[in-house]
Structure formats: C-alpha cells, structure tokens
Design goal:
The structure is a single chain. The protein has 331 residues and is an alpha+beta fold. The protein has a domain at 162-326: HIT family, subunit A. 29% of the residues lie in helices and 22% in strands. Strand 13 (287-289) and strand 14 (292-293) form a beta hairpin. Helix 2 packs across helix 5. It binds zinc ion (ZN) (2 copies) and fe (iii) ion. One zinc ion (ZN) binds next to loops.
Length: 331
C-alpha cells in the first residue's frame, strides 16, 4: 500500500521501552485522515470499500496503526525499534447504522460476526507470519469512539501483547507447579462461589472476577479448556453469542446512559504450543456510577495498580439483576 504520494510521509514503527519491556506502536497515520462530511459513515453499505450484499464485512483499516514503512535512516544507536509489521482490520458487524451496540444484533447475527472473525483468523494461522490475533471492541463516544456504526477491530501483530504475555507466564508457572490450568481453577472457584457469576450457559460462564480492576469488569470463559477461537465448536460459538448479547445488554441497561466499555479476546499466540493457556473474553465496563466514568489516573497509570471503588460482589449482583430483569426477553 503506497499512501506516501497521496498523504505525504507516513511514519510508523514499533519502539521498545527497555524499562518496562514492552512495545509502543508509533504512527502518525491518524493525523493524515482526511476531513469527512459530518454525516458520512465509511462503514455503511455502498461506499467504495464496503459495497453491498453482506451481513458482516471485514475490511482493512484505511488508516492502520501498523504498516510497513520504508526503512528509516538509522537514527537510533541505543534504542531498539522494529518495523510496524501487522494488519489492522475493521469488523463491520451489521449493515445497519441505526443499531447502537453488538447486543442489539440477534443471536444469529452475532454468530455470523464471530464466525467471520474466526475465518479471518484461520487465514492468518495458515499463513504462519504473525504472532498474535487481537480482536477488540471499543464502545462509547465518551471513551473516544468516533464511528457510531457498530464495529470492532482486529490487530494482527508481530509480537504478543504485554497483558497476554503476563497471563501466559502466570499460567505456565501454575501449570508447571500444580499440573493444572490456572484459568480452569478460577472458573471452578467462581462457579462454586457463585456470588460473582452474572450469567451462565452450558459451555460458558460470565463473572466479575474476584480481582476485577474496572468497576464492571466481566470475564467470559468457556468451561472447556481451549486455547484459540478457531478451536471453538459451532455449538460453543452459538452459545457464546448468547452470552455476549446478555452481558452487553446488562451493561447497556444498568444505568440511564449505556455504559461505555472495552471488550477484548485473550487467546493463545498463533505460533507455538500453549497447552497451559485458556482463552477468555474480558469486558471493561468503565462507569462506576450513573454516567460517572472511572479514570485510570495516578494510582492506576502512575503506579500500575487499580483502585476499585466498590465491592465486586455487589456490582455483580446489580448486573445479574439487570440481566435477568431486562435482557432475558425475546431470546
Ligand atoms: Zn454507518
Ligand atoms: Zn483451562
Ligand atoms: Fe485475560
């Protein structure tokens, strides 16, 4: 892709932070996004990129954070950089611009979304180039989501994201010392205690973890010990769609204003063997009260540890109540 001529010099690279041992994605591509008329939606059917005749459409992000640029003249003798190799996709979850959230889609429509993501992942697994497939969803203009049309994103990365790397290390340590999966044990305890569980179906369980960071943080686990999205059966995908619908509906109805959230799939890396890992979805609902955003501030960003301004068990109870009161109809 040559944007150089059209947009001027686009610059992108990965920069290694040697103090925290993690990558930073650096790019000026967003500054190059052209002005668009107020009511124009690039994700609606019928644009040059989207065309017509689809239920779910995955397109490459036109202004990706990751793109391989011509090599920079070496400016760093001390710092480590890497080419911003990777792919950035936009998952357009429905042709309907008027829907607000993934939870407004029917269960069957959500199944189509998950399967479209799964198909794209198969392609990249077979390619054998990239290290990680990160599927995430940002919801709510209060946390900076500019496009209203229901969509999520996929970053296919040349490295393992830091948070997943940390989970992999813990899971490996636990597996080696106890011979069991850390996440299977967490699921077992959550099902036993029950007080943080907000929704459960045969193959899945959703709960506020004991150690929730965000006010309405929800983790969705398959009860089966499985590592990758591509390993889920059709039955598991179908049930997952229902759990996602319920959980997100709960976040939408809990307060007078729909809760902004971030949703992310944590799964094993694409290459290598990670038998000790267990895929799950994490959702961070960021309101701590009606319309009140919880900020990651001094302690969280400065110190790296979260403060939780409530009791997870009570927030779980509230959410569970809302789901059973407002979200069980029409399923
Ligand atoms: Zn649209
Ligand atoms: Zn497990
Ligand atoms: Fe996780």
């Amino acid at each position: 892709m040559s944007l150089g001529g059209v947009l001027g010099d686009v610059f992108a690279e990965l920069r290694w932070d040697p103090t925290l041992k993690e990558w930073v994605l650096v790019s000026n591509i967003r500054e190059r996004r052209p002005w668009q008329p107020r009511n124009y939606c690039p994700l609606c059917p019928g644009t040059e990129e989207t065309g017509y005749g689809w239920d779910v459409l995955i397109i490459e992000n036109k202004y990706p954070m990751l793109m391989e640029c011509p090599p920079e003249p070496s400016r760093h003798d001390f710092y480590v950089t890497s080419k911003a190799i990777g792919k950035c996709y936009v998952v357009i979850e429905t042709p309907r611009h008027d829907l607000d959230d993934l939870s407004d889609l029917s269960r069957e429509e959500i199944v189509k979304v998950v399967n479209a993501v799964k198909d794209l992942m198969f392609k990249h697994v077979n390619e054998g180039i990239y290290e990680y497939f990160l599927w995430f969803r940002n919801k709510g203009d209060r946390i900076g989501v500019s496009l209203k049309h229901p969509h999520s994103q996929i970053y296919v990365l040349s490295f393992i994201p830091t948070k997943v790397e940390r989970e992999l290390m813990s899971a490996k340590e636990y597996w080696e010392s106890r011979g069991r999966c850390l996440f299977c044990d967490i699921v077992k305890v959550e099902l036993r205690d029950g007080v943080r569980v907000i929704y459960e179906t045969g193959p899945w369980v959703a709960f506020l973890p004991f150690y929730a960071h965000w006010p309405y943080e929800i983790h969705i686990y398959p009860k089966r010990h499985v590592q990758l999205l591509t390993q889920l059966s059709n039955q598991e995908v179908s049930e997952l769609a229902e759990v996602i619908k319920k959980v997100l509906c709960g976040l939408k109805k809990l307060f007078s204003e729909p809760m902004p959230y971030i949703m992310v799939l944590h799964q094993a890396p694409l290459k290598g063997s990670y038998d000790y890992y267990h895929l799950h979805i994490e959702v961070y609902g960021v309101f701590r009260g009606d319309g009140v955003l919880k900020y990651a501030a001094g302690m969280e960003l400065g110190g790296g540890n979260f403060t939780y301004d409530a009791i997870p068990e009570e927030n779980a109870r509230r959410l569970k109540e809302v789901i059973s009161r407002e979200c069980l109809r029409g399923m």
